[in-house]
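Please fill in the sequence for the structure shown.

STRUCTURE ENCODING:
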């Protein structure tokens, strides 16, 4: 399990107000889907969530006898849940921390007698590592399907192609904590035309996104934002942290299940919702801002590398500001060379230096 001290929210209260208004008066349209088809790839379909996209990709592949899925355990548990609901056979494989991609891909490729899927979670990337990944996978045969989890790297590119569209399938997230956040929503990239026919037939059985369900999630997002706002964190860190380690995300657990995740016994109702099309115009208005923010985060990542590179207790992921934005830097990865992270986390939070939070409990 990796824990960090503070959530970063890409919505402000003005954004929440716009989303709330559009919940009631927003027009259902395909403007956002059309934008993604134009800017990212024409083979894009919108879904209720990223995990829902993974679920339908996995169901489709299982029907085609691709039942074995190889995935790193450093993956949000909701992805694992989606695979279990799709009746996949899950195989965990080690992660190369310096590259951010799974180890032993060649071994998986060499299992020619079995149909299998490899999930690449884009945790962090640079041009060299993506070159290596592309070199390894270019000779794969049809027995291996590659799915990209691009939930935390929306907007990143490799050689003018968006991450999530490099191989056979990919999925994106527009959830509460993502850099293009409309609270809910996701998207699928697919290479096989037959998948489009399959998914559209499934979508016909779905219902429109429940506005009551959405309103509940919108309110929970506002609470998360409040408990993780800078002023609350400064107050808490200056008073509570000096006596005990009790970061604000402990409060947020009440409103955001992913902070204390468990696998549901039954498929959640939102797996059968369509994309919240009443927020399409909001999503369109946020798209260009995502690209601007990626540029800003690149500048910050460059500064961090310069300041931290000589600290012996940590390893840094190799950074290049000339690599064509292969990382959105929603997270800046630091690899600690010692096991106990909590002492460092407590020190940083008492100094009001906050880190993004992720829980990996697989």
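FILLED IN BY: designer on duty
SEQUENCE:
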């Amino acid at each position: 399990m990796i824990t960090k001290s503070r959530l970063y929210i890409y919505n402000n209260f003005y954004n929440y107000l716009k989303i709330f208004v559009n919940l009631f008066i927003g027009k259902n349209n395909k403007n956002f889907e059309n934008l993604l088809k134009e800017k990212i790839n024409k083979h894009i379909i919108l879904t209720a969530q990223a995990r829902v996209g993974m679920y339908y990709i996995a169901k489709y592949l299982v029907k085609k006898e691709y039942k074995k899925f190889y995935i790193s355990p450093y993956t949000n548990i909701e992805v694992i849940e989606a695979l279990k609901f799709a009746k996949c056979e899950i195989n965990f494989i080690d992660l190369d921390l310096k590259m951010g991609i799974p180890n032993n891909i060649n071994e998986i490729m060499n299992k020619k007698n079995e149909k299998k899927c490899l999930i690449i979670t884009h945790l962090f990337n640079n041009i060299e590592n993506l070159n290596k990944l592309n070199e390894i996978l270019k000779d794969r045969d049809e027995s291996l399907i590659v799915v990209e989890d691009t939930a935390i790297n929306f907007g990143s590119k490799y050689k003018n192609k968006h991450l999530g569209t490099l191989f056979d399938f990919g999925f994106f997230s527009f959830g509460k904590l993502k850099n293009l956040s409309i609270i809910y929503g996701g998207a699928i990239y697919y290479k096989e035309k037959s998948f489009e026919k399959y998914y559209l037939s499934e979508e016909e059985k779905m219902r429109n996104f429940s506005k009551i369900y959405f309103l509940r999630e919108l309110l929970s997002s506002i609470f998360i934002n409040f408990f993780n706002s800078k002023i609350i964190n400064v107050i808490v860190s200056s008073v509570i942290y000096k006596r005990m380690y009790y970061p604000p995300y402990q409060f947020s657990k009440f409103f955001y299940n992913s902070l204390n995740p468990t696998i549901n016994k039954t498929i959640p109702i939102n797996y059968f919702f369509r994309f919240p099309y009443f927020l399409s115009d909001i999503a369109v208005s946020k798209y260009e801002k995502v690209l601007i923010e990626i540029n800003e985060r690149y500048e910050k990542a460059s500064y961090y590398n310069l300041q931290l590179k000589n600290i012996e207790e940590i390893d840094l992921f190799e950074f290049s500001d000339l690599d064509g934005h292969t990382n959105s830097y929603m997270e800046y990865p630091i690899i600690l060379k010692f096991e106990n992270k909590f002492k460092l986390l407590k020190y940083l939070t008492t100094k009001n230096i906050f880190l993004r939070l992720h829980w990996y409990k697989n």
